Structures are given as C-alpha cells and as structure tokens.
Amino acid sequence: MFTKNKKHVPLLRYWTTRYLLTLIVGLLLLGAGSVWWIKETTLENRLKLMEYMAVETADRVAQSSDFGGFDKRMGDRTRFFEMENQPLLMITDMEGNVLNTGPMHGGWGPRHFSGKVPSEIIANDDSIKRFTENGTNIYAVKAPITMNQLQAGWVIVMQNAGDLTNVDQEYRLLLILLMGLGLLGWIVIYLLTKRILKPIQNVAAAAAQVREGDYDIKLDSDQKELEIYELITSFKEMTSRLTQLEQMRAELLAGVTHDLKTPVTSISGLVQAVRDGVVTGEERQEFLDITLKEINRLQTMISDLLEFNSLAAGAFRVREENCDLNKLVEDIGRQWQLTQTEPVDLKVITPGHTIRAMTDPLRLQQILINLLNNSYQAIGDKGTITLQLSEGRIDVKDTGSGIPKAEQALVFERFFRGEKKKLKVRGLGLGLSFSKMLARSLGADLILKESNRTGTTFSLVWEKRGDSTS
Predict the structure, then answer these.
(1) At how many degrees (to 10) do helices 431-441 and 361-379 cross?
(2) What angle do CA 179, 180, 181 make, to 5 degrees?
(3) Which of 65, 144, 242, 283 is close enough to 279 for a disulfide, judged by CB 3.0 to 4.6 Å?
(4) Using an 8 Å Cβ cutoff, are 356 and 469 in contact?
(5) What's the pLDDT score for residue 418?
(6) How do residues 139-184 score in pLDDT, each as one tens digit?
(7) More confident call, 313 vs 135
(8) What values do phi and psi take at 85, rounded to 5?
C-alpha cells in the first residue's frame, strides 16, 4: 500500500502564515465590532445633540414669543453637526403644521409632508421617534414650546438614519489603525518566530550531522528561553553520550575479538602440541586440563552473550515464588563463599524478622552472585564483603578501592569495563548490565549506591508492592 508523500513546509513560513491568518481574522472581528460600536455610539450622541438643539430652540422661541425670524439661528444650530447633510429643524403648531424651518439639506424637507409632520411624531409620548417615509428611515426629535405655562407648539429636528450614522472619517481612521496593527503584528510575529527558530534550525542541522556519523557538533547553549536551553543542552549531552558509546563499540569489537580469540588460540596451540607429541606423560595431561579450562571460559562468554541477547529480546521467563528472603540471601551467600578457591571474608546480615516477597529465586541468585564476584575482584586478597538484607532492598558492599568517578556513570553500560578491570579480569563487560535488566524483570532496580576510596555499595531496590513481613 502506497501513501502520498506529504509536502514539508519550512517552519518559519508555516507558523508565520498561520499567525498572520489568525491575526487577520482577529482584526476583522475587532474591526466589525468597532464599526458597530462607532455606529451605535455616533447615533446615540447625535440624537442627544438633536434633542439638545430642539429643547434649546424651543426655549428661545418661547422667550421671543415669535415663530418667525429664526432661519439664521436655526442654520447656526444645524452647523453643530459634523455631517455632510445637516438635520432639518422645524417649528410646528400643536397639530403638526409647519410654521418655520431651518435650512434644508439632503433633498428632503417639508414638501415631503405637505406642510405637516406625520401625526405619529406628535402623538408619540417619547421625545425621539423613528419612522419610515418613502422608503427612508428617519429619526425625529421633538421638544414642546411652552408659553405662559401653556404649550403653543413643537420644535422638531429630523435627520435620516444614514446621515446620522455616517462617520466616514472615523471609519478611515479605524481602517488605517487596523492595517497598521496587522502590519506591525506580522512583523513582530515574523521576527520573534525567526528568533525562536534559529536555535531549532541549528539543532536540526546538528541532528543531520549526527545522522551522517559526525558527532563533532557546535551549539550555543547560552539561551534565555528555558525550553530551548534544555533542548540544546540535552542534544549536546546525547551527542556526547553517542560519542562515548561509539568509542565503547570500537573497544567492544577489539575487546570481544581479543577475548574470544585468546582462548581459541590457546586451545589450538595446546591441542596441536598434544597431537604432535611435543608433550607427553603428566605434561600432556596438564595441557589437556588447561585446554578444558579455556573451553569452559569460552563457553561462559558465549553463554553470557546468548543470555544477554535473550533478555534484551524479551525471550526470557521469570518464575516468581513467595520466597523467604532471609533464608534465600543466607543460602546464596554461603553457597557462593564455598565455591571460592581462596578464603573470603563475607558477612551476611539479615533482620530479626522474616521478609517475604514474590520473586524468582534463580534470577535473584544470578544478580547477587554477579555482584559478589565483582566485589571479590575489587577487594583482592584482603578486604571484606557485606551482603545485607533490609526492607525493600539488598545491599552488596565491599571495602575495595572503589570505582573511579569518571566511570561510575557507565558501569551499567553493556560491554563497558573499567581500566583496572580490563587488565585484571577477562570478560565481555555484560555482568552489571545483565544484572540490571534481570532486576527490572523482577520489579526492582539495581543501582550504584555509593563508591569511593573506602569501598563500593550496589543496592537491589524493590518497588513498593505490598511485600509481607512476619
């Protein structure tokens, strides 16, 4: 089944395009809301101004007791409005008959009402009335003319709705403002994205360099952003780790080749000497014994490799039992001590109460024997090994010279062997790595608790899962 290859887009273009689209949508929504708010606010303010002009004109008419001669004054009042078409101001009697008007603009005026304003304006109790005339929405604001405490007529100010909400200048300013914000936002987004992407692009280039097998990378870890700093630092540490692993791989190849070749060469030489009759009698028997030892050593290394690969591949079974850990640890310590060719000062310490746990006794024995063997190699001819059981852990402590600090972080790496151990012990360097994998299969963890010049302590620590004591 074939799948189409997706087209990959540079991160800078990908995110700036989406940021820009988001910004445009946001500005459009903001612009629409602003237009509505400007329109409503302008309408409200102009209606209030029309109402004020109607009341002020009604007061002047009442004071002068004359309905005529107000053309110029009414013309001055209408100039208060900053509109292309000024509102129409009219003075009517009580029945709505037009007695006088201000200047007419916009092509509509008293002629549309046959000299009389619509009755719905006069009859309406509200001072502001919206109505439709010849398909045009019109707002009318009225104020009563009162003389000697008696109403003598009305001052009515009219304007069509379109002129009242027409604020082209404000709309132009809003458009300029939104375009400026959009351009500024895009520039800021572009620059910030470019700033953030630069270290990421450097890491991507370094990753491509590592993919080609070149681990000599240079990355600037002096970053203010925490996440980018952690990314670069982690990548540099990973590269350093890969470099170490590459060196270990090369050493492994040389070490395994040497360790496997040495017994094979010895066996070949010994067998050749026996076959050709170079040695006879007791010496011949001695050669055969040495050959068997070398064969056993070779079988042990091959077995270690097979077991490690089996465990790494998951083809490994754990058979858990409800074990008395006190007795199990004591038996393992005693059996190991008896198998040593030289006397060993081993102390086995168990608590006064019995600790029971579900575990595989065979796999636990493998782990502890490997730890005891390592401790024995560390103490040499003199020294003490302590095998101690306590709640949730088993400690194996020796009084050897300790593990160098530079090597402590690598002790659980597969095929790793310290400099001192390479010279003293032949092997593949799988013991601790294999033991740690076994520990995890038992629901525990194997850790290097401490190591210094006075000795080393390894701890097998169980997760809390309800082990029982009695």
Answers:
(1) 150
(2) 90
(3) 283
(4) yes
(5) 61
(6) 889 999 888 888 888 888 888 888 777 776 677 787 888 888 888 8
(7) 135
(8) -110, 115
DSSP 461: E
Within 10 Å of residue 142's Cβ, how many Cβ atoms?
Answer: 26
Query: How far apart (Å, rounded) are the C-alpha atoms in residues 343 and 379?
Result: 12
Residue ranges covered by each domain of the chain: 11-170, 215-316, 321-469
Fold of 215-316: Helix Hairpins (1.10.287)
Write out pLDDT tens, residues 251-262.
666 656 656 666
Rounded Cα–Cα distance for residues 455 and 52 (Å): 98
CATH node for 11-170 = 3.30.450
Q: Which helix (H) or strand (E) holds 70?
A: none
Tell me the three state secondary structure of residue 154. Answer: strand
Distance CA 461, CA 465 (A): 12
Has residue 324 got a pLDDT over 90?
A: yes
Architecture per CATH, 321-469:
2-Layer Sandwich (3.30)
**Residue that is written with structure tokens 């509505």 in the block:** 36
